[in-house]
Amino acid sequence: MSSETGFDPALYERFPTTGERPAGEFDELNRIWAAPTGIAKLTAVNNNYVGVWYIATAFLFFVLAGVLALVMRAQLALPLQGILPQETYNQFFTMHGTIMMFLFAVPIMEALGVLLLPQMLAARDLPFPRLSAYAFWAYFVGGLCFFASIFFGLAPNGGWFMYPPLTSTTYSPGINADFWLLGIGFIEISAIAGAIEIIVGVLRTRAPGMSLREMPIFAWGMLVFAGMIVIAFPSVILATLLLELERALNWPFFDPTRGGDPVLWQHLFWFFGHPEVYIIFLPASALVSMMIPALARTRLVGHNLIVLAFLATGFISFGVWAHHMFATGMPALSVGFFAAASMAVSVPAGIQVFSWIATFASGKPVFNTPTLFVLGGLVTFVIGGLTGVMVALVPFDWQVHDTHFIVAHLHYVLIGGAVFPLFAVFYYWMGMTSRRPLSERTGKWVFWLMFVGMQVIFLPMHLTGLMGMPRRVYTYLPGRDWEITNMISTIGAFIFAAGVLLFLIELARNFRFTVEDDAGNVYGGGTLEWLPTGLYSTRSIPVVNSRYPLWDDPGICKDVEEGRYFLPNAPTGHRETIITSPVRAEPEYVQIMPGPSAWPLLAAVFTAGFFVILTIQAYGVALFSGVLAVLCVLRWLWDTDRPIAVEQADVGAGIMLPTYVTGPRTHGWWAMIVLLVVIGMIFLMAVFSYFYLYGIHPQFWMVEAQGWWLFPIVGLYALAALLAWLGRRLLAREDVSEWTPSGLLLWGMVAAGAAFILDLWSWRATGLTGDASGQGAIIHALFTLQGCLVFILALMAVYLAARTGRALIIKPCNNTFDLITLFTWYLAGQGAASALLTRLVPGGF
Amino acid sequence: MRTWAYLLGGLIVWTVHFFAVYVAASIFLTSTTARVVTALVTFVCLAAATTLTLRGWAGRVGATDPERRWIHTIAALSGATAFLAIAWQGLPALLI
Ligand code: HEM
Ligand SMILES: [Cu+2]
Q: Whole-prediction pTM value?
């Protein structure tokens, strides 16, 4: 057998170990992982707690958005009803769509990742527990404030994709639109935080021996999911930033009379928006692929094909965004390409559906509640997929664009692809976090009510749409034959709601949160999350060499529980987990994990505060909240990256692993790279916008900055990168007093700052302003992005200096230093690229 | 990194292809130039996908280590998928 890291796979033969484990070591493990009690429980960062809170909050938003939907359906039951006036209806569908997409569907998938991934990978926790806690709290506080806007009539009203010019200040002068643009801000941050966590978690914290080949399908789903968030979310981050800048500072990104273009928004939004639907569907379908083998009592048919389908979806879903824009008048050939790609995207989904059917067919399924939900979801999703192929046909799409046909289509896909699978998940995994499982008898009622309700609402709605009823219109005139189908849809909505209500009652009756004495593996799953667990996750971390370890090794639960595998104790006396290599999962080092802390919680509250207060234009208070958020983050980071007394730990069977590692193989480095990809994508989308605006309205590009400024600007950026590199090199040297490493980094920061100011100043000297033209706006947007980076680097440099002052930057290598160096390199690259771009295109020399 | 590039090679070629044809159609609109560029890009990408598939398949047959074998399998499958997808994606240039 070959090896990835030099670890000898023969060492796995030592497990399960024999002989007694020392007394007291188990109590020690329990003590180290114990959760705080009382009100301090809120500072817990353990995935068992945060995961459940997270899921509960997301479910709350599902119910809230569902209530909005019910009121809308009541309004549409009959023509000319007066339940919701026009303006309120606009706010309702916008909030319903936005909450369902941003506050329910995406967060609940991340939440399930937080709860389930560590268990499935047999890690003690995800690699950055405090980051998950931060992501959760920012979402919780921000989400509730966002929702509250509806009670004040301040809720956004431009639809969930907020097209300008409708959402520009001319047509939306109130602060409603700002609520959307800034309210989405914290969701973007928390989604990205979650994605970083999941990518590093899946690739680096798997149980030893769990190679990519044996990785559970959910981990694959989450990996692709997180990868897609990293590529897709930057686009909407940039879009919201640009629109907010346009609204606040009058920079005309989307105003065609001044060299902007509203279609740019559509490109940016849908480059995010289409992948978004797969971001929702992939984890849900991955969960289905996890449940079906247990429900059908056989192995998943076509495991490799499903992995391939996930990966293929991840790529192709970035190639179909313009199918939402068939009605905008793109070149005929482009339309043809996008139609072809849109049809192709159904193939990976088809692979999964056939594989599920084959698994059910080859096994012996029992028709219990999760099975019903899975099958009901499958049927519903396939119907939605078929109407999806219909709207990929361009002439048909022109016919039904913006009608209720689309509303029916999107709900079939979303409810079949995500909501029904989620209910199956609730039933199937309830035994992991609840003392009692949910009742099968009521479960069947819940299913049939929801399933029948769903079809009754949305099947006739296709007809409503084909008869021409537009979406997003609060009422209709009598005598157009729209009454009957609308009434049926409304009745269906109440049937569906009855199902959800019954489920809530069922939760109140049977859900009793617990970590230790849970109901357990009610449905007989074969993957690691069903190992006996406590807050420390599994007692010991097994060696994995199968896709269904619990089925293939009947002794595994007992051996794990008796500590016969990796890390049966806490050799360092801290919370810890094993970091393994990405392909073959060979143990590399022991990661020391942080415990409970109030700082992520506080940081999250102030982050959410920053965005929410910005909307009501109390800029001073918002800024104050933002500063507090930054301080809390720094305070939380302060405790991290400290070597511990035990340099080498015995992780079981005499295998020794280091406890402090630096460089490109560390989890911190990986997280930084992912973060830089996010920032890089934001920049890339800005570059795209630059070319787009130039391509559409070149007549507005009249200002030229002198080209020779490039030499000092690029030179200074290069100097910044060089100084950071030199600092990192000198860290290894013992006797430096003058040019200390952090001193060099500070100088690097100064050089980068000077380059930035020079660039900005030389452009301003030409008289160019942000509100002058599309060119002025986009150049200033690039400066905004770069300015943020420079500001962050300044914070980092000061933080580094403070750490150096306290002798926390240990030699010869240090993670904090490494990460700041990486950031400086990136910043220098982006700054130089942006200076070159603005001066060389369309040409200034 | 190299493992990942190989594993995802076919899908990456596919992505390069669809972005390339979108760019071609955006710059040259619905013109003969756009069709010719599409045809060229399509042939190059088809060739790359074929190479990846064959390489993956050969690797799969020769591999003894189950992990390597699995990586070759996925690489071959993704190459084959890409081949079909690229051919399909190029077709509109013949029709429109
Ligand atoms: C069975 C429960 C549901 C009902 C009765 C319902 C009903 C509605 C109604 C009446 C509209 C507005 C139609 C219009 O006038 O344009 C709407 C829009 C929408 N719904 Fe739902 N919905 C349900 C569940 C969901 C779920 C689970 C999701 C997503 C996960 C979702 C996502 C959306 C989106 C994205 C829109 C478009 C909003 C917009 O036009 O900006 N809905 N829904
Ligand atoms: Cu789409």
A: 0.96
